[in-house]
Amino acid sequence: MKVNISEIPKAGLFLEEISTGKDLDLGRKDLEFNDPVKMKAAVNREYDNVLIHLSVEACGEFLCGRCLEPGNYSVKKEIDIIRPLSDGKVIDITKIARDEIILDYPLKLLCKVDCKGICAGCGNNLNKRQCVCSKEDDSNRGIEID
């Protein structure tokens, strides 16, 4: 969705686009956007500015960063942008939408906030089962100090 500033009518523009995560280069090694990415934009000129109201919806799939269970990640954003007319002749709204989705990426994708993860010893998903590792006596750990 590219908008030529000189072609914005007085009543403004309303644009819609459906794209893929692959087309927008949204994928990470731990997050894939397989569903369509929906973008809607209302674009108006006001004095020396271009006003853009952007709505973005996207849904992705991931593996939890702790327990490796699959999960869904969704983005629903409403963004208001003001660009001066002097910024150029064309505004790439698709790039703005892509940048906004990426800015919302969490540092670590988790199935739930309190995910317990996987036991390093027995490999059980601690959200579903108890650890079956033998609990060794901690008093014999390390070296003896006199």
Q: What does this 3D model show about the protein?
A:
This protein has one helix at 93-103; strands at 2-4, 13-19, 31-32, 37-46, 49-63, 70-84, 90-92. With 146 residues, it is mainly beta. The strands form two sheets. Strands 2, 3, 4, 5 and 6 form a five-stranded antiparallel β-sheet that branches. A two-stranded antiparallel sheet has the order 1-7. A hairpin with a 2-residue loop joins strand 4 (37-46) and strand 5 (49-63). The longest helix is centred in the C-terminal third of the chain and has 11 residues, at 93-103. The termini are far apart.
What's the quick description here?
With 146 residues, the protein is mostly beta strands.
Helices and strands, with pairings:
Blueprint lengths: L1 E3 L8 E7 L11 E2 L4 E10 L2 E15 L6 E15 L5 E3 H11 L43
Antiparallel strand pairs: 1-7, 2-4, 3-5, 4-5, 5-6
Q: Quick one: biggest sheet?
A: 5 strands, antiparallel
The average pLDDT score comes to 85
Binned strand content: 35-45%
The helix count comes to 1
Low-confidence stretches: none
Counting structural domains, the number is 1
Structural class, by secondary structure, is mainly beta
Euclidean distance between termini CA atoms: 73 Å
| DSSP E strands, number | 7
Radius of gyration: 24 Å
**Helix/strand order:** EEEEEEEH
- The helix content is under 10%
